[in-house]
Design brief:
It is a single chain. With about 950 residues, the protein is mainly alpha-helical. The protein is built from 49 helices and eleven strands. Among the domains are: about 170 residues, Rossmann fold, CATH 3.40.50.300; about 55 residues; about 70 residues, Arc Repressor Mutant, subunit A (Orthogonal Bundle), CATH 1.10.10; about 100 residues, Serine Threonine Protein Phosphatase 5, Tetratricopeptide repeat (Alpha Horseshoe), CATH 1.25.40; about 80 residues, Serine Threonine Protein Phosphatase 5, Tetratricopeptide repeat (Alpha Horseshoe), CATH 1.25.40; about 100 residues, no CATH class; about 70 residues, Arc Repressor Mutant, subunit A (Orthogonal Bundle). Helix 31 packs parallel to helix 33 and helix 44 runs antiparallel to helix 45. About 50% of the residues are buried.
Length: about 950
């Protein structure tokens, strides 16, 4: 058997060969072997243009010649000029003109020629095997194809190998019908598929004598596995110095499509009808993917009228089906078709397409993309359409809206009256898209132009917002103050300046000024718009929260939500603020309800820089409920969804959730990595409350890794801040207990007393908040060794981790009191273990098991750490829930709605599910879920519930009133 050939071009080193065609090559060798053995055979080769049909035929012919075959070969050049019968007569050495004394009548002459060909082939077959290789049969007339079938049938008993090839460029042509018939008669049919990556890489190596680097390999991969396009691309890049070869490696240095490649694309497209080429030109300007009805609308016809052209492009492999649209199958082919359209014509087509899409009421983003490229400076109607599109596109894609607004400004002369309004729109849209640096640059540039007082004030207001988001509070306040000092401003602008100033004041460490300012706004609410009044109520709510008046804080936050319902007051996202406060006091059901009512409020009505806010709040909800895996997934997805330099307080909140979740899941090193990500810039962008919370988790991580001695300095600062700002105590019901436990471990009872005093004061002032009372009981129980207080805390904490923590403290305290309390200590530690295991707090559960072992008790492990790294058993509870819903046929959006998570989070979990189960599709996942459901056994009814409330025969009677807590320190 001959060696497998490899694809190459005439410029390559070595003989012309082929790559990636092992099955096809073996089929051809089988055909030749059959003829050698005296049997006839037919091999049908078909494929899209450029897939290598002609090259395969040439290689087979070369091999057949070497094996002593008599050859009768015809290619596209012969069949394109001369009919099949005449071409075969010539190939057989017959005189086509004189016909050697044949009959004079035309029908008789044709029959004589047909018989002469049959006889000639039969004569050659009498002396040895014959190969008849006919290429591009799609060019042959239907009557000649009927004759070809007759020859094959008549010579079926002779050693004739028929190698027939056709291009699938046209649907319904006669050669396709012949192939169907011959296959039915027993012929073998092969279709040349696109080459795989290994074959493409081999061709590049053959042509260049070097291995392509990843960038070059990715670039040539866009050829779609078409060897004709690939060889044209590589040859063009090499000839145009687009590839640099050094030390056996080929590197792409220019990504422009070479002329040789564009010529190769033109050659392929020239095989299509003019009408189809026209359609492809319009389709290419529409985009790499497009809908048939949009293409028909631009062409001024109906989808039904262009179906034949689309079918031709599909059969040629130029287009492919992509969901509900059609698409150019190869990215480079699409680019080549687009580049072939002259720029003026391309711009005109973009303008025409934009008008059509805009008029049809389709997606605003699609119309905008074309209008931006087609509209010119003098096109006032087009610019007006783009202006209208900014508001339409903004809720869907803030980035695209910003691009449109910038394009409008760039096409507007500063001397035009519309320039000022368009510039303000562009700056505002850039802010909402999170592109703060660009917004700042455009603002500074605009402020150098001659402006009206109103325009100048509007730009200063926007610059104040930008500066505030960039952490430049003093400059932001100065800009807002400048606007407010301007006489005669419209109420709308004055409100905007007031709100900008209020935002800056809220972030200040001493919020007294913000509270006074907000109170003045509320008292004069009749003189202000709802947006400003909403911001004032939010400011007062946060101030009340910081002053330990939780009921008033919630009341004011609810009022802010009510005010915002009738206005575009996205300024501080009142629902997000309310949900945050409710989560702090562990009213999780209410927080979930508020989040559900907010929907995608921050994306639809707010700034893109705040787009992560819902994810951060949902992550906090998961953390508060003890769902650490979910908290991590949601927070990571939230950070991934946020782009650009957003408010760092939001980033720090997300990373703080991630750090706590990682720590409680038992991975302090991962928690430290999250802290390190958040530390740069925290003091610049973060609020004092965010900084206090972050300092707390940072200290907890440090102690978990290095012991209590590593946090002595940080602990002193945290304890000293608690009386003045108790935000950390409110937002984390375990904070007071941790501070007290750590202070006692460091023999610093004075600071422990400060924390307990602050926690009890917070509880006294807020009697309607059980979680605050439980936190105070927990802290007091640790300080005084009060078992009853710890027992009440272990029952009353709303946070499952906090309940387990209080139970552990109770068990440790009881164990320290000697053998008489052993059973009570074991009961408390069992409750703690059940609680930690139920929420996957592996590190904490391991610590409790160690305490139990010291009491002579061993408990079996049921922690997350026992999950295998792959397989069904490796899935988390959330991953299993998502698997079940996907198996039911739900989309990512519907899964997200069912589980109250985002689509980003669902996709995050699905990627992990596919990796763990080593599958690649939703269908495989559905099959796996069905298998697991069939094999599932009833769960162990003896395991404790997730909340850890199960009591194990404990009694609080007989506990001494005071005793020292265990010296074991934990996060």
């Amino acid at each position: 058997m001959s060696p497998l050939p490899a694809y190459c071009t005439e410029e390559a080193h070595g003989p012309e060969t082929m790559r990636g065609r092992a099955p096809e090559w073996n089929a051809a060798l089988d055909l030749l072997a059959a003829a050698h053995e005296g049997r006839s055979g037919v091999l049908l080769v078909e494929g899209e243009p450029g897939m290598g049909k002609s090259r395969l035929l040439r290689e087979v012919t070369r091999t057949a010649r070497a094996r002593g075959f008599s050859l009768v070969t015809l290619g596209a050049l012969e069949l394109g000029r001369i009919p099949l019968v005449e071409s075969l007569l010539s190939a057989l050495g017959e005189d086509v003109v004189a016909d050697g004394g044949g009959p004079s009548a035309e029908p008789d002459r044709r029959m004589w020629r047909v018989e002469r060909i049959r006889a000639g082939l039969d004569e050659r077959a009498g002396t040895g095997p014959v190969l008849v290789s006919l290429d591009d049969l799609q060019l042959v007339a239907p009557t000649a194809l009927v004759t070809l079938r007759a020859w094959i049938s008549q010579l079926a008993g002779r050693p004739v190998a028929w190698l027939l090839a056709r291009s699938t460029v046209k649907v319904g042509e006669a050669a396709g019908g012949l192939f169907d018939i011959l296959e039915y008669d027993g012929a073998r049919r092969i279709t040349l598929p696109p080459l795989d990556d290994d074959a493409l890489t081999g061709i590049v190596i053959d042509m260049l004598g070097a291995v392509p680097d990843p960038r070059l390999a990715a670039f040539v991969g866009q050829s779609g596995g078409n060897p004709y396009l690939l060889t044209g691309l590589i040859a063009g890049l090499r000839g145009g110095n687009g590839i640099q070869i050094c030390n056996g490696s080929a590197r792409l240095v220019a990504v422009r499509l070479p002329r040789r490649f564009q010529a190769a694309v033109r050659h392929l497209l020239d095989q299509l009808s003019p009408q189809t080429r026209h359609l492809l030109t319009v389709a290419a300007i529409l985009g790499r993917s497009f809908s048939p009805d949009a293409a028909a609308a631009v062409l001024g016809t109906t989808p039904a009228a262009i179906v034949p052209r689309l079918d031709e492009a599909l059969s040629a492999g130029v287009l492919t089906v992509a969901g509900e649209e059609l698409a150019f199958r190869h990215g480079l082919l699409w680019q080549a078709v687009t580049d072939a359209v002259p720029v003026p014509i391309r711009n005109a087509l973009h303008r025409d397409i934009g008008d059509v899409l805009f008029g049809r009421g389709g997606p605003a983003t699609a119309a905008a993309a074309h209008l931006m490229q087609g509209v010119r400076a003098a096109d006032s109607r087009g610019l007006a359409e783009l202006e209208r599109l900014v508001d339409d596109v903004l809720p869907v894609s803030p980035r695209t809206a910003a691009d449109i607004a910038l394009r409008v400004v760039s096409l507007t002369d500063p001397a035009e009256p519309a320039w000022a309004v368009r510039t303000l729109t562009a700056v505002r849209t850039l802010i909402e898209a999170g592109r703060l640096d660009e917004a700042a640059g455009l603002t500074e540039s605009a402020l150098t132009q001659p402006l009206t007082a109103a325009t100048h004030a509007g730009l200063c207001c926007l610059r104040s917002e930008i500066l505030h988001m960039q952490g430049r509070a003093a400059e932001a306040a100065a800009d807002a103050a400048t606007v407010l000092a301007e006489p005669g401003l419209p109420d709308r602008l004055r409100d905007a300046a007031e709100l900008a100033l209020l935002n800056v004041q809220v972030a200040d460490r001493d919020n007294t000024l913000a509270r006074q300012h907000a109170q003045a706004i509320v008292e004069a609410s009749a003189d202000h718009g709802d947006a400003l009044v909403t911001g004032a109520f939010i400011t007062l709510a946060l101030a009340a929260w910081d002053a330990d008046d939780l009921a008033e804080g919630l009341r004011l936050a609810h009022e802010a939500v009510r005010r915002a319902a009738s206005t575009d007051a996205w300024c501080l996202h009142p629902r997000m603020i309310l949900a945050m406060l409710l989560t702090d006091v562990r009213r999780l059901d209410e927080a979930c309800s508020v989040m559900a009512s907010a929907g995608d409020d921050t994306k639809v009505r707010g700034r893109l820089v705040w787009a992560a806010a819902p994810a951060v709040l949902r992550a906090r909800l998961h953390l508060a409920a003890g769902r650490f895996d979910d908290a991590i997934a949601v927070a990571e997805a939230g950070l991934a969804a946020t782009s650009g330099p957003g408010p760092h307080v939001l980033m720090s909140s997300a990373l703080g959730v991630l750090a706590v979740a990682a720590l409680r899941s038992g991975d302090p090193n991962a928690a430290q990595r999250y802290v390190d990500r958040a530390r740069p810039g925290l003091s610049e962008y973060g609020s004092p409350h965010a900084e206090a919370r972050f300092a707390l988790v940072t200290s907890q991580i440090a102690m978990a890794r290095d012991g209590a001695g590593a946090v002595a300095t940080a602990l002193a600062e945290l304890c000293e801040q608690v009386p003045e700002h108790s935000w950390a105590l409110v937002s984390d019901p375990t904070a007071a207990a941790w501070l007290v436990r750590t202070a006692l471990a460091l023999d610093d009872r004075a600071r422990a007393e400060i924390v307990v005093g602050a926690a009890e004061r917070l509880a006294r002032h807020n009697p309607g908040f059980p979680t605050v009372a439980a936190a105070a009981e927990h802290a007091r129980g640790l300080l005084d060794g009060d078992a009853c207080a710890l027992d009440r805390a272990s029952m009353d904490h709303a946070d499952p981790w906090a309940r387990a923590s209080a139970a552990e403290d109770l068990g440790a305290l009881t164990a320290s009191r000697g053998t008489g309390s052993r059973q009570s200590a074991i009961a408390g530690l069992d409750q703690a273990l059940a609680g930690y295991d139920g929420i996957g707090a592996a590190r904490d559960a391991a610590r409790v098991r160690r305490r139990l072992r010291r009491l002579g008790v061993r408990r079996r492990h049921w922690t997350q750490g026992d999950r295998p790294v792959s397989g069904w058993g490796s899935l988390t509870d959330t991953e299993r829930r998502i698997s079940e819903l996907v198996a039911q046929g739900l989309t990512n959006r519907r899964v997200a709605d069912q589980l109250f998570i985002s689509v980003h989070t669902t996709a995050f979990h699905l990627r992990h599910i596919f990796r763990k189960l080593q599958i690649g599709s939703r269908l495989e996942l559905a099959r796996r879920v069905m298998e697991e459901n069939r094999q599932r056994t009833p769960p162990d009814g003896d395991r404790p519930d997730q909340g850890g409330r199960t009591r194990v025969g404990r009694s609080t009677a007989g506990y001494p009133e005071r005793d020292a807590p265990s010296a074991t320190v934990r996060p």
